[in-house]
Request: fold
Amino acid sequence: MKPKTIALAMLAIFPLVATASDNEIRSLREELQRMRADYERRIDALEKRLAAAEAPAAVSLPPPVAIPPAAAAPGSASGFNPEISLTLQGQAKSMQDIPERSISGYWPAAGDHSGEKRGFSVDQTELGFAASIDPLFRGTARFAVVDNQIDVEEAHFSTLGLGNGLALKGGRFRSEIGYINVQHPHEWDFADAPLMSKALFGAEGYRQDGLQLKWVAPTELFLQFGAEIGRGDRYPGTDRNGTGPGAGAVFAKLGGDVGTSHAWEAGVSYLATRAADRPAHAQDTDPAGPNQVEAQFSGRSRAWIADFVWKWAPDGNARDRSFKLQGEAFRRSEDGTLACSSGVAGSPCLGATGVLALGDYQTRQSGGYLQGVWQFVPHWRVGARYDWLSPGTKHYDEAIVFAALDPAGSLFSTYRPKRSSLMLDWSPSEYSRLRLQYARDTAMADVTDNQVTLQYIMSMGAHGAHKF
Amino acid sequence: MRINSRLLVGGVLAVLAAPALAALNIFATVPEWAALAQEIGGDRVKVFAATHALQDPHRIEAKPSLIARARSADLVVATGAELEVGWLPLVLRESGNARIQPGRPGHFEAARLVVMLEVPARLDRADGDVHAEGNPHIQTDPRNILKVAEALASRMAELDAANAAAFRDGLKAFAQRWQANLARWEKAAAPLKGQPVVVQHKSLTYLLHWLGLREVATLEPRPGVEASAGQLGELLQRVRKQPPRLVLRAAYEAPRAAEWFAGEAKVPLVILPFTVGGDEAARDLTTLFDDTVARLLQGLK
Reply:
């Protein structure tokens, strides 16, 4: 039966179709078009087979024969399955054996220290799902699987059709403050996060459990504003079990092209959150010998981040050669009170209740990183990165604080943490990457750690586009 | 430095007001669809081409400038078949523009309208850069351009009813010229029929199919994977007995492999513009195929 006849028959059977909206008419037309295309393709294939049979044998490869697609046929329920991606990441690392790594002068961010194992190790295996939910929403979930643990990295919905440049996201997502924070570890140009990210948010970066609203201005220059509110339970905040938002962030981004070879983006972001009894390891001044105690910060934490990225590729063609320069800088202010707590008899931190208040505590700290990555031939890139942090200023009553806590502790250090890294990576395709990295890490006072990392990153399945 | 504040305010207003102009705002992912939309729409459309002819269409990034352009577009004209999979979905989502999302009238995919070639029988990335829906470089067959033009014109008319008649006239004029061109090109290209050629990448499949050229080998061992010196050498041995008449490469593709192979095999290398703007002669769709056919014939001499 001819497709047209089928369509006519359908029209006759279903009176509903007679009142079909434009959409339905279009989908019918498309269906017709597809059927027609299908017939044409089969005829085409037959003609080609005929031609191939007639043609004299040559060194030729088989002629292009159209075969029905191998993908799930539309109509089967599995066609609606989300896009699935799986990223394998692991490394071999040589570095000094330091039991508790920290950044001198900086409050230690909680959380795991992935990629900080010596020797061979498997990093998180990232499993991602994404699909349209309905015409209004799209859903995304990413799980980081590590030994005995599944970490929900992202689990959010986002709107598809709010229009007017607006997009709303809800659930758990990587905050878009700064530039690198939104990237997953497999997108980084180096095997580890910048020192700045580790100091500000911990190695995993800042995630929100909350809402994000973004707006793109209707201008030819890219101009975007965004605001986020969230639970605020992650470092530098703590979970405070409140009913309102525990963290808020705003950001603005500006970007564009210069000629056909250059593209850039720059932004400023602000994050405000609060911490209650945020812990850090410290040592007390017990005359009988120092005890491990817990220092606690309670108060406001606010951070400003400025970021920029500039990319060059000859004629906008990054296949052969390209260059990427990226930098971020931050300033963080924390205003609140310090306390210490211990359960050890004789510790000055024991106090009457196991907690000793140490008065007001205020810090102003800053730092940043600058990195460049140069693709010198197809598939090969070299990169250099420099990280620096300033101890900044800290205000507290030394008489009170040092009566209980050891002034030589990392928290009170005025050391300037630094790190220099060099990397070389090879990506035979866009789905695989092998990387060699050397870093001279002087983030801890009195330690010069020469680190060598050999890393692999492999992606399977659907691999969506990366952000600029 | 003193800044004239009136000029500044005026400038900002002008920038803000620019996308609000009445013309249908079209965002084309590749130059060929930009040129086609312009042919149909004339001065009643404002066309932006996201990429140019010397960029590898498989390796485009979701640049901020593209998101800004997509934000105000009324219609996105893409090839589809995963050609733009590395950047367009992200640009569409980031744009916050509901009109151009997949499935909406403002989202047009050309590959849905033509018969796809080289649809893979199996999907495995060990086979290289394969596209599940088939070879996406459909624009190298001018007959496909006409099919796309018809659907594009009706989509444009649907989105901009006020200019529907103008778009229909634009299509009619284009189709007439194109039919005449097709006859002319096919007549001129008759000597090419059946000629054996070697191509660099599977970017010219539709062109070969149209002109009846016979692809005897591809320099890339797998799509998107460059050949090693050893693989090229082997290929050279294979074609020695029955040498191809031409080695073909698209303007955007890396030159080395094709140059070396053509030199060693002593076969003329023909660099084809591939899309509008691929060389100086290919200024629009008509001159694109004028130049393509002329270069192929020149190579045969």
